Structure formats: C-alpha cells, structure tokens
Amino acid sequence: MLKGKRVLVTREKAQAKALSQTLERYGAIPIELPLIRIERAKQLDDALVNEWHTYDWIVFTSQNGVKYFFELIGEIKPPTWPKVAAVGEKTAKALQKRNIVVDLVPNEFVAESLAESLTPLLSTHARILLVKGNLARDTLREQLNNIADVTDWIVYETTINEEAKPQVVTLLQQRLIDVITFTSSSTVRSFERAIAKENVDLSFVTIACIGPITKQTALDLGIPVHVCPHTYTIDAMVQELYQYFQTRGE
C-alpha cells in the first residue's frame, strides 16, 4: 500500500515527472527534490562530432546519453549507422523514438550484462564508441578493452545540487517523508553528502533503489536499502514498494 505515503523523488528535475506520475497512480504523494543536476559536457571532443558514425558500434549507457548525443550531432545523418547497443529498455526506447534501430539490449540492464552480450558479436579489432556521462562506471570499457578499440565520449555532466541540502535535512529531521527513492548512484552520493555531519535519523524511512549498482552504492555509504526490484525500471521499483508495504500491512 502506497496511498498517502510521502515519497522523496531525488532524481534530476527533468526526469522526476515520470517517477512522480507513477507514484501518484498508486496513491503516493511525491515530493520532488532533485539532488543532482545534469547538463551538456563543457569540454567535448569536437572530432567525435564528425567521426562518430565511423565506429562499428555505438553504446548508449543512459537516456541522458541519448539526449545529449543528438544535441551534439544536430542534423548530421550518415548514409549508414553503426550498430547500436543500449544498456536498458528505457534507453533503447529513447533511441527508437528517434527511429534508430537498436541491435542489442541485454537481459539485465547493467554494464556487466551488456559487455557479456556484446562480446560474441564483435569482429576482430572492432571500434566501439561509449556515449556516457562523467560519472559513469568504467566497467564497460574495462571489460571490452581486451577485445576491441574502445573510445569514451562524455556528452553530459552530473553535478551535486548543493541547494537541496538544507531541504533534505529539514524533511528528515521533521519526519515529513516516508520513502526515499534513488535512481542512480549519483543521487545516493549526493544524499549522503547532504546528510553528512547532520543530526539525521533514517530508521523511520523506507529506502528504495532502482537496481543493484545503486543499491551497492547506498550500502557502501552506510545507507540501508529495503526495496530493489529484479527489473531495473521505475515502474518495477514502485510496484516493489507497493508490495513491500502491502506485505507489512502498512
């Protein structure tokens, strides 16, 4: 049961709406407080703007990567596209909306699964372009480097929203929220930074993470995690939250 539960939505402002709307369908009360900001990278490899289509594969690790990639390439339309891989179904859908054929989406929406699925499809000396953010893990590049020529293209930057710190602390100290949702490791790190050295009790709050990487980041920082779905999507996370409270009779 989520009806009446006050749920903190920590993801970036432009992406918060989708999660808030899902929560509202379950009767929850979303409280949007973006803990991170996302913007186009300030320093870019201009050569890649003209050369991206010469790679054998382009790998997109997030919806933000798709958004800023297309902002950068503008109206460039090559005669043929490289093969395209997306880490998750939301990223794949963002590409498909732009009429881009997605050749590979792994069964699990994490870098390790994508690397495992992509490896058998690579030709000798394949050239791969990883479209990513500045805080993305190096897992893909590390796992593919032995069998391919991998280039990182950082197209967006994630920074901490410092203005949110006092609001987070106040909400927790006054016990004005029931649930905290984390949709990325960067939101977890920003949260931990906001509450560091503050008199904050998390024992009354239920914490949900969208997937295992985000969950592990939280645990590593000493933040308990109560809910983490098997399918790493917003819908699955909210459904899991609903079941969590239903099981507890709350």
TrEMBL record:
GO terms for molecular function: uroporphyrinogen-III synthase activity. One of its GO terms (biological process) is uroporphyrinogen III biosynthetic process. It comes from the Bacteria. Transmembrane segments: none annotated. Keywords: Lyase, Porphyrin biosynthesis. Its EC number is 4.2.1.75. Residues 18-239 form the Tetrapyrrole biosynthesis uroporphyrinogen III synthase domain. It catalyses: hydroxymethylbilane = uroporphyrinogen III + H2O. InterPro entries: 4pyrrol_syn_uPrphyn_synt_sf, 4pyrrol_synth_uPrphyn_synth, UROS/Hem4. Gene3D superfamilies: 3.40.50.10090. Pathway: Porphyrin-containing compound metabolism; protoporphyrin-IX biosynthesis; coproporphyrinogen-III from 5-aminolevulinate: step 3/4. Catalyzes cyclization of the linear tetrapyrrole, hydroxymethylbilane, to the macrocyclic uroporphyrinogen III. Belongs to the uroporphyrinogen-III synthase family. This is Uroporphyrinogen-III synthase.
